[in-house]
Structures are given as C-alpha cells and as structure tokens.
Design goal:
5-stranded mixed beta sheet, Aminopeptidase, 7-stranded mixed beta sheet, about 325 residues, alpha+beta, binds coenzyme A
C-alpha cells in the first residue's frame, strides 16, 4: 500500500482539510475554523495557521497544526490533530508529530502548547512520552456534542461515552529548542507547582515576587467561542479596579466555561489571581512563552457537574494538578 506523503499545508488545501475534519467529526468539531475553507486559506496566508498534513491520492488523510497567537510568542498552540478513520492505527500520528516538531524549529519557535483530549488515552500518552509535561488541565473544555467518528471509546473508564458530558483536555508544554532565560512574577499560591514544572521542563526562569497593580484600570479582551461554550478573557493590564470587572466576567451565565489568561510579566498578577479565586476561578495551567511572556490561565465552570472534576488522566503529574484544582474549589465551596 502506498505511504501517505507528509508536507506543509498550503492555501489551496483548505477545502480538502475541511473534508478531512468532516470525516473525523461530522459536524461536531468545536473549532468552527475547520469548517470554513475561506478562513483557513486566509489563516495560512497570514501565517497564523502553520500545519503539516498527510496526503494520499490527492486526499488529505491527516493533519496537525500550529496556531501562532501573537507575533511576540516564542511558543505556538499546537493541535487540531486528526487522522482519517480509514488510515488509523498505522503510525500516522507519530509521523505528523515528528513533522510538526521540525516545523516548530523551522519557524524559529522554542516549543508548543497543546491540549490532549481526555476522551481517550492516546494523545495524553503520546504528549508525555518524551520531554513534554502537563502544566494544567482545562476542565469541561470539550463540548458534550463532540463525536469522535469511528473511534472505539473503550478507554473512557467504562463510562457511556455518548452520555459523558463535557470532557477535559490537559495542557502540555512541549519544548523543542532551548529558550532564553525569562523573568516572571510568580503568584504566591502557585510557587511550588510552577517552580517544579520549570525544573522538569528545563526552562530557565527568574521568579519574582509580585507587588501591587501598577495601574488604576484593568484592560482586557474578551473572545466568545459559542460552539465551544467558552469565553476567553485575556487581561493585558491588571489594575486595581479588577474586582469590579471580574464580578461581571460570568455575564448572563450562558457560557459553560470561562478562561482568564494573565501575563506573568505583570507585577499585579498576585492581586489578579486572588481576585479571581474570590470570584470562583481556580488554576487551569501555566503556558510558557504563550504571549510576550509566560501566561497563567485561570478557569471557572459556570454550572459545574461533579463529573467535570473527574477527568480520565493518565499521568501522576496531571493527577497532582487536578488535586490542586479540587482543593482550590473546596476552599471556595466550603
Ligand atoms: C487519535 C488519532 C489522531 C490517532 O491517529 P493514528 O494515526 O491512528 O495513531 P496511531 O497509528 O499512532 O495509533 C494510536 C493508537 O490508536 C489506536 N487506534 C487506531 N484506530 C483506532 C480506533 N478506531 N479506535 C480506537 N483506537 C484506535 C491504535 O491501535 C493505537 O493504539 P496503541 O498506541 O495502543 O498501539 C486518530 O485516532 C484520530 O484522529 N482520532 C479522532 C480525533 C482525535 O481524537 N484527535 C485528537 C484530539 S486531541
């Protein structure tokens, strides 16, 4: 049988890529970008989407990509990994992973952050088999409607997959090259986990104790992902008015999950974390090099179910992060 050919994704590939996602997920994939060929083409042209694909007989049979979130980031977001149902079990995932690593280096990036699904063990195991480590968990991140077409769900802890509700994804940092030393402010409540992660990932960090916010006003950008039921709030400037602003983050309560991303070069980060914890947020993850600095992601589930706090995790590292989150939640709910 001929071997699929691995290459970079080009603007003309967009409609073939949409077809591949439809084969793998029907209409249920949470990232709507992958149903919009025009948008994919413009993201490839602008350099926002930098992917590798597997091609066989003029058909795209596998994909994994880098999404570059900001021009100053040294790490991209990696993911949207699929292998067409008729091509599974032949090691294509590994070949795409090797090519993606090479592309990351070619693009001058030092690593990538990806979000292995907890729907099955395959991605979590692959992500941590080498030098990658979980730095967080995004609870209830994957909508319940997501249908993994033609995939045996035996790994789901014998739960009925179709009724499993929203599932978590882990956050994994994968270093691919040595990164420059970076100075960041480290919030008091996460000193231990983040210090030990930096050591495990061999990332050179100078950690500083945060102070009081340097500004009166907080500035943030809010993005709604309706299909995913997710609001993402990026705080670009932490100000002393954050408590008033954070009280409105839930909005009308129609979104399932809220993420708040904090830049770790902002000395007000401890103030922001404590404000967010008071408002029901808990740790989600440490994202090295994600913006102009490292990013700390906090999360809140708007109407949580007990299952949301029992994701299928395959490593001790991920389980210890879950313990941290559950303890934080306990301290909020009493
Ligand atoms: C996960 C996925 C990308 C793996 O791709 P792949 O090229 O088949 O990967 P591999 O050939 O390395 O096989 C990986 C494992 O999947 C198993 N597998 C293959 N087809 C399968 C199927 N239909 N159901 C369950 N397991 C399957 C293989 O036996 C192998 O198990 P092992 O590691 O214990 O030997 C692919 O199955 C897929 O696209 N799944 C649906 C979308 C998805 O889950 N994407 C990841 C989101 S984070």
């Amino acid at each position: 049988m001929p071997e699929p050919f691995i290459r970079y994704l080009e603007p003309d590939d967009a409609s073939g890529l949409v077809e591949c996602f439809r084969l793998c997920y029907g209409e249920t994939y949470a990232n709507e970008t992958f149903y919009d060929a025009g948008l994919i083409t413009s993201m490839i042209e602008s350099g926002e989407l930098r992917s590798v694909i597997a091609e066989l007989d003029n058909r795209i049979v596998g994909h994994t990509g880098l999404t570059v979130r900001s021009a100053s980031s040294l790490a991209a977001e990696a993911g949207n990994t699929v292998v067409a149902p008729d091509m599974r079990g032949q090691g294509l995932l590994g070949k795409l992973g090797t090519a993606l690593r090479q592309r990351t280096l070619d693009e001058g990036l030092v690593g990538y952050i990806h979000y292995p699904t907890t729907a099955h063990d395959i991605m979590q195991k692959g992500a941590t088999a080498g030098t990658g480590r979980e730095t967080g968990i995004m609870l209830a991140y994957i909508p319940a409607e997501t249908n993994y077409v033609d995939f045996d769900k035996q790994d789901l802890d014998k739960k009925d997959f179709e009724k499993a509700g929203r599932l978590a994804a882990t956050i994994v940092y994968q270093p691919v090259a040595e990164s420059p030393e970076r100075s960041v402010y480290l919030p008091g409540r996460y000193i231990q986990p983040i210090r030990s992660l930096a050591q495990a990932l061999n990332l050179q960090r100078k950690f500083y104790e945060p102070g009081i916010p340097a500004f009166a006003e907080s500035l943030f950008k809010r993005q709604e992902n309706i299909r995913r039921g997710l609001s993402n709030i990026t705080i670009n400037q932490i100000g002393v008015d954050l408590p008033e602003k954070a009280a409105d983050f839930v909005g009308d309560g129609s979104t399932a999950v809220i993420h708040v991303d904090l830049n770790m070069d902002d000395p007000g980060i401890d103030y922001a974390v404590e404000t967010l914890v008071t408002n029901g947020f808990i740790y989600s993850g440490w994202l090295p090099e994600f913006h102009q600095s490292d990013v700390l992601r906090m999360q809140m589930l708007v109407n949580p179910e007990e299952d949301n706090y029992q994701p299928n995790l395959v490593t001790e590292q991920a389980r210890s992060l879950l313990t941290l989150m559950i303890e934080e939640r306990k301290s909020q709910t009493g």
